[in-house]
Each structure stands twice: as C-alpha cells, then as structure tokens.
Amino acid sequence: MSQATRIENDPLGELPVPSDALYGIQTVRAVQNFPISGMRPLPMFVTAVVWVKKAAALTHEETGRLEPRLGDAIVAAADEVLAGQHRDQFVVDVYQAGAGTSHNMNVNEVLANRANELLGGKRGTYTPVHPNDHVNMAQSTNDVIPTAIRLGALALLTDLTPAFAELRDRLLDKGRELDGVIKSGRTHLQDAMPIRLGQELRAYGLTIERNLRRLRDVAEYLRDLGIGGSAVGTGVNVEPQYPTLMVQHLRRITSLDVREGEDRIQLMQSMGDVAGFSAQLRTLAVDLSKIASDLRLLASGPRTGLDEIRLPAVQPGSSIMPGKVNPSIPEMVNQVCFQVIGNDACIAAAAEHGQLELNVMMPVIAHNLLLSMIIMTNAAVAFAERCVRGIEVNEAQCAYWVERSAALATALAPRIGYAKAAEISKRSVHENTLIRDLVHQERILPDDEIDKVLDLRRMTEIGIPGK
C-alpha cells in the first residue's frame, strides 16, 4: 500500500511529502539527495539547534518583530521536541550538503508544522507560521550551526567532566589502597627498577586530572557565540539587540555559561575553537587508551602473562575456550579511544577546509565532535565502575617478579660502579639467579649492608639505596 502524501512546493518545484510528516519538502529533497550512511543526527545536535530556534522566537517576541501568538507557538513546538517528542522527524543523513542547511531546514519545517497544528492549522500549509520567515527569522544556517556545535559540546561536557572525575577518583582510591604493594617497573617492556602498584595507579589518576584541566581550559573558547552573524558574519537582516538577547535567552534555556562573541565574522570563518577542543579530546583519548592497555598488560595471563593484577570478570571471554575471561572493559575503552582519535583527524581536515567567510564542512564536524564526547563519557563510566573499582592485586606474583628483575643491579651502581653492576645484571639473567643471591655469593657487599642497599621499598622513593 502506498503511503498517503501531500504536495508541497519550494523554489525548485513540487514534491510529494508523507502526509503524517512534520518535516517538509526541503527535508524530503535532502533525504533523496543524501542516502549515504543511514545515520540520523545525534540527539544532542537536534537539541542544540532547537535551543537556538526557541531562543530566537523569544528574542523576536521581545523586540516586537514576531507576533506573540506565532512566537508562543514556535516555543511550544520547540518545548515538545526538547521534552523528547517528534524525534523521529529529524531524518537528514549525517553526510549532507555543506554548512548543515538541510538539517537547519529540517528543524525549521518540523517546528513550523507543529506550531501551525497548535494554532489549529494543518501540516504542509506553512500558515500562519513559515519555516523561513518565522522559525528561521534573522538566522542563517551559517550562524545557527556553529552556535549549535558550541552549545552541544558544552552541554555534553557537563556529563563528560564528572564521568572522568569519577574515573580519576577511582584510580586515586586504588592507588591509596594498593600503595604498599611493591612490583617490578618496566621500561621498553623490559625489567626496570621497582615501583609501588599504588604509584602506578595514582599516576594514572593524575594523568586524567591533567587532561580534565586542559579540557576545561580549551572549552572556554567554545563559550563565545557568533549567533547574529547571519549569512557572512556581518549581521545582515539582524536587529542590533538580537545577539545580546539571544545569548541571554540561551543562557537561561540551556543553563550554560555562554557569552556574546567579540567578532562574529571571525567566529564564522574559523572552526579553530572546535578543532582545538577536539584535539584535547584526542589527547585525553590517547592517555586513556594507554591506561587501558597497561591494565590489560598487568592482568595478562593468568598463567603465561604478568598476572600482577586481576580485573573484574564481567563476561565469559571465549566461545570455544572454557573458563577464559578477557579484559573486556579495557578492550572496549581502547576501541572507543581509537574512534575518537579518528574523529579528531576528520575534524582537523574539515576545519582546515573552510573557505573565506564560512566552513561548509560543519555537519561532519558536528557529528564527530559530539559522537566523541558521548562515547568517551560512556566509556569512562563503564571503565570506572566495571573495571577500576574492582581491581585486585596478586601480591605473590608482584613479589615474584620484582625479586627476579635484572634491573635491581642499578641499586648497586653507586657502591660498585656501573660496569660491575652491569656484569652482575647480565649474570643474573644468564644464570637465572637472583641479584640478591649473587651479591651474597660473590661477597660484593658486607652482609649487613645487602638488605639496606637492596631494600625494595627504598628503591621506590627518591634517594640512594643504602644511605
């Protein structure tokens, strides 16, 4: 059975539109033109654009440019979308025409049609509320989409920051809990001087903290909004009070600390603020992935690997090997981080490919940035709760490996010299003998000094062992 349709017109002609659709002809054209990925806009991207539309209707009511009856209907339609309704009506593919005009018009049409329904009208008539004349009043895709990207990122940051703060705290807690466990350090994946497990875990937590500080710093640039720039940043067809009022309404609607940008032309030309924020997300992903990989390595085994820690068993690890348990959560974290690194490469290329007054690659920038933030937030929550919180130590294995480290000869170097210490280290490996036993056998140090010089705990703190 064919779907019932209505006929709509635009400057290119007429097309059938599904009768029950809140979107209109320009959205239909976009759906026909861009059957690319099957991916629809992320919910936060829809929300951010609707925030702009709601703020614009309120602003124009305040200035008297928009009849209150029409403005109130647009606001009511926007509130329905913000409450979760009509989300299936945002249907334009992620990969679409430049700047995001198709998505912007999708939102304009949905809000216009729903506003007209609320006023007693019918879908597709665009009277008394028109998607361009009223919902998009004094706006251009060129200032709406950059503003929406900034709003969306700042909104998601309110979830990302506490998620990573929790992960940081879990790592620091584990560091305190396991600070008494001495284990072998490793550099180049070879034996190195002893380190306490607590020191390793605390360092991971501090790495997350440093990344959070940098992320907060670079996010400050996203708070400058270029809304009111209109087509090329100059503000054509925009009332002088519009930018200030828009920022005031957006602050109230979103609860975000945003401000009017110093130069709307600059903010339209450059996606550098977004690219810089994405770059810091990438740096966080790089560090996070390294931490996840380290935990996988420390938990490797349990019989043929390091087996110094045990990660929580969250699911069976093999469909063929009974009893096998894999580090599933860190593996997921690695994959998320790889995706974020790739997203950032896309954002960097897209940000560079703006021309003159506009960057037309904003749709892919928006999708990749918001996607990165969503998956990083969710990964951090799972990592903290389903992995880090439940880390347990295999103290016997830690003690076993650290006593066998050929690097313990380093503690002898201040007493017997580098060359002699190197010879002891090589003999330890070749003869499969503990450094401590060789020192006893060869009477390299007096018996009453051996335990002082080879004090493993002292080796994990600043100073010269034995002094």
Any overview of this molecule?
With 467 residues, the protein is mostly helical. The chain folds into three domains: 5-137, Fumarase/aspartase (N-terminal domain) (Fumarase C, Chain B, domain 1, Orthogonal Bundle); 143-226 and 262-396, Fumarase C, Chain A, domain 2 (Up-down Bundle), CATH 1.20.200.10; 404-459, Ribonucleotide Reductase Protein R1, domain 1 (Orthogonal Bundle), CATH 1.10.40. It is 58% helix and 7% strand. The strands form four sheets. Strands 1-2 form a two-stranded antiparallel ribbon. The model has no long low-confidence stretch (mean pLDDT 96).
Tell me the number of helical segments per DSSP (H or I, 4 or more residues long).
18
Q: What is the highest CATH level, the class of the largest domain?
A: Mainly Alpha
| Total number of distinct structural domains | 3
Mean pLDDT rating: 96
What is the H level of CATH, i.e. the homologous superfamily of the largest domain? Answer: Fumarase/aspartase (Central domain)
Shape: elongated
Taking the alpha carbons of the first and last residues, their distance comes to 89 Å
Explain briefly what this protein structure is:
The chain has 467 residues and is mainly α. The chain is built from 18 helices and eight strands.
Task: Name the descriptors.
single chain, 467 residues, mainly alpha, Fumarase C, Chain B, domain 1, Fumarase C, Chain A, domain 2, Ribonucleotide Reductase Protein R1, domain 1, 3 domains, two-stranded antiparallel ribbon, 8 strands
